[in-house]
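re: ur question from yesterday

yeah so i grabbed the chain u mentioned. its 58 aa long if i counted rite. heres the sequnce exactly as i have it in my notes:
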Amino acid sequence: MRVAPVGGTAVQDHVALAEIELCGELIIAASAADEDRLSLESIDEVLRVAEERDASGG
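ran it thru and got these structure tokens back, copy pasting raw so excuse formatting
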């Protein structure tokens, strides 16, 4: 069995961390929603899709 060495050897995958954060936000929104499923518009709002489109000029 290998054990990670103690110290500053942690590697961060910023893309994976961002995806985990977005999934968490979707879970929170889904648990707070009145309906059984989030609408596509609600999902876009949680994921800030419109903001990203505006920022990219599309």
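noticed a couple things. The mean pLDDT is 83. also Residues 9 and 46 are 33 Å apart (CA to CA).
anyway ttyl
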